[in-house]
Design brief:
Length: 390
């Protein structure tokens, strides 16, 4: 009997401490969201300069995806000077798909960048190679699984020029492959919202910025001056590293919602295996203690409030300040549901399974932590180069 009471008291103490930590982490997450509120997405521009943008499409075994991406780019207007598809050594029919697109649109050309040099990850090398072959004042990187709206790139350049940005990346809309992805993907996306706040902001603070390499637009002179692709050559989240390099040199970088659609992963298993690698936001700009703090805040602000609420309801008045504790945790759960309602616009026709994604919050955070601790990562069958600390 005494042992049972001791166990119960220990559980009560653990729950009480958890609620306190959840409250602190939740307030910090709210503060980040509030500080980023009120921003404007990319809007249609009244004028777009002809030939102002060159697009680089980095590819590796993208036969099944790149055709739709090139077809969407072909619908862009005269602001798009060229579409350079840079291949890191595909072994499938990627080149044939690109050559067929080039026969329909003279702006498309194929560049063979294989083999990737030692010390470089493939995408960073492809971007470095692609920029050397173009001359437009603005460079856009578009992933092979992205379908951009016909006016997006010109509108993005106009917005960057109006706001004095060296670069911006686009918060794309997602197509989900299956019901499992509809549950897991929004939970993973929410970890980004809790850590970095809302989109439609610009900053020169490397610690606050967000970035998405699926659609990235940068001013050529800034990209070259800061040698951003070389700086990200061994990063496992090169999009974030490129943006952080620019910001650390005083450049303003935006993260804005825009007209682009992507199906990132073919299944929930693919999503679980590959997306956490870049979502960790781990590179040489982030110290281990800061990364640990970020993951702890995700654990307490996002992943644990719902399980804690269940435990609080079971323990009832045995928890000190039970009503206050329950009110705090309920508020955190309501906040999570509010974020879920807000991120709905990031998805194309989300299914009912989307609304179950808070149930995947704990697995999502565990996946991020496991990915950050993993030494070896593989992409398209290739082992990624390990990053050297600064």
């Amino acid at each position: 009997m005494r042992q049972d009471r001791a166990v119960e008291r220990s559980c009560v103490v653990i729950v009480f401490v958890a609620v306190v930590l959840e409250a602190v982490a939740g307030v910090r997450a709210i503060a980040r969201m509030v500080s980023a509120a009120g921003g404007k997405p990319i809007r249609a521009a009244t004028a777009r300069a002809a030939g102002s943008v060159a697009v680089i499409v980095p590819v590796l075994n993208e036969e099944a995806r790149v055709g739709a991406s090139l077809a969407a780019l072909a619908r862009c207007g005269p602001e798009l000077a060229e579409i350079v598809v840079v291949d890191g050594g595909s072994s499938d029919g990627t080149r044939s798909v690109v050559e067929a697109a080039a026969a329909r649109d003279r702006r498309v050309r194929f560049v063979d960048a294989a083999p990737t040099p030692a010390g470089w990850n493939g995408k960073a090398w492809n971007l470095q190679t692609g920029m050397r072959t173009t001359t437009a004042p603005w460079i856009a990187s578009v992933d092979a699984d992205v379908r951009v709206g016909s006016g997006l790139l010109g509108d993005a350049v106009a917005r960057a020029e109006a706001d004095g940005l060296a670069a911006l990346s686009v918060a794309t809309r997602q197509e989900l492959a299956d019901a499992g992805a509809a549950v897991l993907h929004p939970a993973l996306l929410t970890t980004l919202v809790y850590r970095a706040g809302l989109p439609n902001v610009a900053t020169s603070d490397p610690a606050r910025l967000q970035a998405n390499g699926q659609v990235f637009v940068g001013r050529r002179d800034a990209l070259a001056r800061h040698d951003v692709f070389r700086a990200a050559r061994d990063s496992r989240c090169e999009d974030v590293t490129i943006a952080r390099v620019l910001a650390s040199n005083g450049e303003h970088v935006g993260f804005l919602e825009g007209d682009a659609v992507v199906r990132m992963h073919g299944s929930w298993r693919d999503c679980a295996a590959n997306w956490p690698r870049s979502l960790t936001l781990r590179d040489r700009f982030v110290t281990p203690p800061r990364l640990a703090l970020a993951f702890a805040e995700l654990l307490f602000a996002q992943a644990l409030p719902l399980p804690t609420l269940v435990v609080l309801l079971a323990l009832g008045e045995r928890v000190p300040f039970a009503r206050v504790a329950t009110a705090i945790v309920v508020a955190l759960v309501v906040m999570r549901l509010g974020v879920l309602a807000g991120t709905r616009r990031a998805y194309v026709r989300p299914s009912l399974a989307y609304w179950l994604s808070p149930l995947a919050d704990l697995p999502a955070v565990v996946l991020l932590i496991a990915s950050a601790l993993r030494r070896t990562h593989v992409w398209r069958g290739r082992i990624l180069v390990a990053e050297n600390p600064a």
